[in-house]
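Proteins fold reproducibly. Look at a sample protein:
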Amino acid sequence: MWRGPLDDVADGGLASPRIGIGGISIESSTFSPHVSGDEAFIERREAELLDYYPFLAAGSELRNAADWVPILQARSLPGGAVARQTYERLKAELLDGIRRKAPFDGFYFDIHGAMSVVGLTDAEGDLATAVREELGPDVLIGTSMDLHGNVSRVLLDATDLITCYRMAPHEDDWNTKERAVHTLLSRLRAATGSDSVLRRPFKAWLPVPVLLPGEKTSTRIEPARTLYAELPRVERRDGVTDAALWVGYAWADEPRCQAAVVVTGDAPDVIRDEAERLGRLYWDARADFAFVAPAVPLDEAIESALASVAASGERPYLISDSGDNPTAGGAGDVSWTLGQLLRRPEFADGEIDVVHASVFDSAAVATAVAAGVGASVRLDVGGRVDDGPSGPVSLVGEVLTITHGDPDAGSQVVVKSGGVHAIITERRKPFHHVSDFTDLGIDPRSVDILIVKIGYLEPELYELATGSAAGERWRLALTPGGVDQDLVRLGHSRLVPGVYPFEPSAHEPDLRAIVSRRTGHAIEEI
């Protein structure tokens, strides 16, 4: 627990408030040609949705503190923009559920914050506004988000309590959701008399015109480590309810895409001061953010790996194939890196083995499955969704393993060509865990080079790269794709003026926070 047990219900507070749950969660790259349709989402409703949250387990304090009304929460692996018809279908079901199951005292709005929808500019703002209109002005809405989400003024005004993760990688995702629910319940249990507005804290909102990739803002390293350490300190101040700092989402081209600070609480002057202090710290540090690992072209990363393996024998050496990272919104079927590996003479004779995870291509998987383990196959792999970097790549090799039934990937095959082990999946899948490889018959600790479509390494892979006497064995390869780390070459054209690093010589921004809260149908600014 972030905050310990709930306080007792105060006079006038709600002992068992009726709280709805719903939202749509996806991170969407507008630079990826992938479109996220119905098939992309896992949709949870009713009891399945309530059971999804471990902190709301039967018998838990938070479960017993409210009458929970789960409606619909749709969650997807990051990808391209959401198909408009998919968004409208999910939105309509959520609103219909709110309408049928009203009234509510509170609502937990569970979103990511970087959803893009075909034809919309601010998808979360649109959804939050519709949810607010359906709930009415008096229902308290609490929201939790990814720190790579965006906080537009529209989203801010539609909600009452809004916060985000404080760690990247997101090891605190469940803690953040629990913290948001705990805060929502605490406000509903507080003394209010007959004036429901007193449950609502003020919100000090400050957009900061900086937009950086997550791989430059990991909380494992400075300056993000120190910046995010400020948030719990701010939160402990009298009059402060919560403090949050968003990095923003770098691979969407929308005006809302930039960093943001929101400090909520009951002391307007305090939260204003703290929001402006945090915003100033972030702005002043903008040029100090660096990649979480040495960021180099792919060829240079491979040379470093080969030299390390030859010198120390320590394995594996990890390379992040960052441009098509499916957990940042990449299509997942860019095969450019695989093509480069197949051309390298060092891997031709199999003396050095390299695993590439992965390319999704259902047709290639079907061909390999039909051929069977041990068969020699010729495949055209990838480049069917995002064909920009290379198009399909020709792969001739032996089908090493076939695995069926992965909940994300479906069927998976490993095809060996010389020393290159190409993992090809039926559907998009991130490879974050050691078991993702061992399930396919690959022990990642025994291969020379492990290349994963990822940015910063998730904890298990990070330990592989750093947990030995040889020290860190990791490079972040600057590869092409829909989440290219070289943001400037992507071609953003819709950001607000002055966003760093797109306009590095921009004038000093106005770093004054706007303090507001909802009073009935109106938004009060002070």
